[in-house]
Amino acid sequence: MKLIFIYGSPGVGKLTVAKELSKITKFKLFHNHLTIDLGVSIFSFGTKEYRNLVDKIRIHLFEAAAKSKIKGMIFTFVYGVETGAKDTDYEFIKKVVRIVKKQNGKVLFVKLSAAEKELHKRIQHPSRKKFGKVRHVKSFKSIRAKHDLDATIPVAKHLIIDNTKLSARQVSRRIKEYYKV
User: Fold this and answer.
1) pLDDT tens for residues 13-53?
2) What total of structural domains would you count in the chain?
3) For 150, what's the count of Cα atoms within 13 Å in the CB-facing half-sphere?
4) Which domain holds residue 71?
């Protein structure tokens, strides 16, 4: 299985791009907010209990998908390194890579970025309400103050795309071409 791991700041267009990429690759789409919304229905966001539940569900899904015969999967994720804290996101990512590699699969990393002004515009889009996503510039700025949302996952190969002025279709085509999926 090939796992396309799309990450970036809230509002950068991860899900929009992932949906478009899923159409042209026929890869399955695993939208991370499905697990987030489940987790916060039981525990407060960010608590140890919340994180354990969400990580276990995600890991189990990655294991099942990697063992199956599906061609590929697309996963969306906000990677943010908290100021002065242990990088727990990277620990999670290393687990995911190990799981996929163990089944002779490959993780293909894509980092999306956009100009701050464009992120502020996108954050407020009504479509974000459905999944309990960050929807207010003030909340976004608060998260950005505590986390480095522009951090790059420290892995060897990456595709980094500034999609400020690109459509989801253009970005998904670049991903497909770059990784030959």
Assistant:
1) 999 999 999 999 999 999 888 898 899 999 998 899 999 99
2) 1
3) 9
4) 2-175
